[in-house]
Write the structure tokens for this entry.
Amino acid sequence: MKIGRNDFCPCGSGLKYKKCCMGKEKEDNHEGLKEQYYRKYKIRLKDPADIQGIKKAGELVLQTLDKVEEIIAPGTLTEDINTLVHDFTVKNGAVPAPLNYSGFPKSVCVSVNEVICHGIPGERSLQDGDIVNVDVTSILNGYYADCSKTFLVGNVDPEAKRLVEVAKTSLFKGIEQIKPGNTVGDIGCGIQTYAEAQGCSVVREMVGHGVGFDFHEPPQIPHFGKKGQGVVLVPGMVFTIEPMINLGKKELNILEDNWTAVTRDGSLSAQFEQTLLVTPDGYESLTPYE
Ligand code: MF3
Ligand code: CO
Ligand code: CO
């Protein structure tokens, strides 16, 4: 359901939508919206200087993922990926956000095959045919950017390859919903509709999130949902979209380490993530890749 002309304006003014922001979503009301979005949702809209800062962090995260890709091969330990990400991040004057975040023991999440997310690097070695998500978040000059890709290790089965493609396209199905006036629900609906039509399932427990000043800020961005529901997108919002897509059922288990999320049915899971900015015309990725 879209917001109706006679509904209260999502900007929080208390006026009807038609008497307030309707049709003006693209206009420059940044300072007003900033106050309203913070008051109503605790969402911190970003200024141009903030966006530059997050973009710089994003460039570093993308470079880090390029470095990681160079060592993805059978025999590489997930610990080797951690070492590379940690050292490269620090060498470039940044801080790996995962390290000690809520007690997370490593500098990057590395999630192989049936691991949905939050895999802890260690002695597991990559095998020919594996799929592996590497999720990098770096803090540069106080700004956070969060981005992940799923890589193929050697020769991967067609069905696993298809899952990885579905997960990547799911991310882009979410991204293409980003524009002022659309809602958080439009993003989730775009992802869920596509992924389920491909016979895959969408993980519910972990969601995208506001990002930039902190690792996880409001709002939450579910990768499922209904058109028109949830917070209305406005310019200056920065958040991640990071759908976790399973080949089997959507349910998960958390392992004894209290971090590693795995598919309950043991099926493969893949994920892609970018940090996105809502612009007056649509969106800009602050961690862009094709
Ligand atoms: N990078 C993950 C995300 O996309 C969060 C990882 S939390 C950690 O939100 F502690 F496991 F690093
Ligand atoms: Co994230
Ligand atoms: Co992430």
Q: What stands out?
A: The two ends are 31 Å apart (CA to CA). The chain has five helices and 15 strands. The chain has a mean pLDDT of 96. The helical segments are 30-41, 48-71, 78-91, 158-175, 184-197.
